[in-house]
Q: What sequence folds into this?
């Protein structure tokens, strides 16, 4: 186990009708005007937005709405949000939704607290530890952005999907009501479950030795999420399954399962470029990539892949041939993806990139790491291109 810092300041308010507490939570912190940030129409249709408006009004707070967030949230809307906050004297930012509104709101909060061009922040040209105050109401179990330090934004110029990670971006509070996820389409539920699995797997596949404690915690999380995703897809109103997914989403990405080890995140970076170019659903894109990544790198540590197969998917360990167990584990992961309606290749995802597009995606991918990505196995441009080809 290597040295680490673990910082999780977000207050979690979890359970039925929790969103009704948002007004008093913000008022208790001394703020007065709120930007509510969201996308789509489902918040209006299921009454969530109306309940939030009432909670804020009942607490004597004023607010302004900014909708329009789309999957893979755009820098253009972020800039509009910063301008609106300054015009309306907003002093608190409240996203409602999943990772897209929350990540977009974090970017707005960075813009409100700093005077540099936000593109410079997300492209790595500047850094900051300053951000405007933010809380959130989570309505989708997926990215874990409600308690994480991460924000991912798509820059329309070049369609670059880029992240900025800093602990200042962890929301002051996260309100989570599993019932708000009941009306999610099955595809979005499944994609969210896959994203939660992948956030854990990106940390699980490490070359850091002697990490059994966190291995065991991560394995318990993955087994619970694997089972809960199937239940939630089949029975959308299963409260316990939805609660497991919602809380698991935060635990998978708040940093806990990455303590004491070096995490990989190559699959995420490979998917980010695919998502930027083709605008695919993030969790589904990760499913389409991971099997190809795994087959490309598993020989780096066959025993770890065999451990994953045995402990997560109950594949019998072949002590005489761990490679057989490792490969069976990858197949079993793909079987689980198909069981919940997720793709395991770009063809199943519905895209077919050309060689030119693969070259462009690989270029952009390795540029984020100074010419390479990944820590489980270092991947250079040719490696990333090969993984895209395998997935195609």
A:
């Amino acid at each position: 186990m290597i040295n680490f810092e673990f910082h999780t300041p977000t207050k979690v308010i979890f359970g039925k009708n929790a969103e009704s507490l948002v007004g008093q939570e913000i008022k208790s912190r001394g703020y007065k005007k709120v930007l509510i940030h969201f996308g789509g129409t489902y918040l209006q249709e299921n009454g969530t937005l109306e309940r939030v408006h009432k909670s804020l009004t009942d607490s004597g707070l004023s607010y302004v709405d900014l909708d329009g967030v789309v999957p893979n949230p755009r820098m253009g809307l972020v800039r509009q949000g910063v301008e609106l906050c300054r015009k309306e004297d907003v002093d608190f930012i409240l996203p409602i939704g999943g990772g897209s509104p929350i990540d977009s709101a974090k970017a707005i909060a960075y813009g409100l607290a700093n005077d540099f061009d936000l593109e410079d922040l997300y492209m790595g040209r500047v850094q900051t530890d300053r951000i405007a105050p933010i809380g959130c109401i989570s309505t989708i179990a997926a990215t874990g952005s409600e308690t994480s330090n991460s924000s991912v934004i798509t820059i329309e110029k070049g369609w670059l999907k880029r992240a900025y990670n800093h602990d200042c971006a962890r929301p002051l509070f996260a309100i989570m009501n599993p019932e708000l996820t009941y009306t999610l389409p099955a595809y979005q539920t499944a994609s969210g479950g896959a994203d939660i699995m992948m956030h854990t797997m990106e940390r699980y596949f490490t070359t850091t030795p002697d990490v059994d404690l966190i291995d065991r915690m991560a394995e318990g999380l993955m087994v619970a999420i694997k089972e809960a995703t199937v239940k939630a897809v089949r029975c959308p109103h299963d409260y316990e399954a939805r609660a497991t997914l919602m809380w698991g989403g935060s635990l998978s990405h708040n940093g806990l399962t990455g303590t004491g080890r070096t995490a990989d995140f190559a699959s995420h970076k490979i998917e980010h470029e695919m998502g930027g170019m083709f605008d695919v659903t993030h969790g589904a894109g990760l499913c389409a990539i991971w099997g190809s990544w795994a087959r490309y790198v598993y020989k780096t540590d066959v025993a770890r892949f065999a451990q994953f197969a045995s402990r997560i998917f109950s594949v019998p360990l072949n002590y005489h041939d761990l490679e057989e167990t490792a490969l069976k584990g990858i197949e079993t992961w793909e079987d689980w993806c198909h069981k919940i309606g997720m793709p395991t290749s770009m063809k199943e995802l519905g895209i077919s990139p050309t060689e030119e597009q693969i070259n462009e995606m690989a270029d952009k991918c390795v540029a984020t790491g100074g010419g390479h990505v990944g820590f489980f196995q270092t991947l250079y441009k040719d490696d990333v291109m090969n993984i895209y080809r395998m997935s195609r």
Observations:
- The first strand starts at residue 11 and ends at 14.
- The domain at 11-180 is CATH 3.40.50.1970 (Rossmann fold).
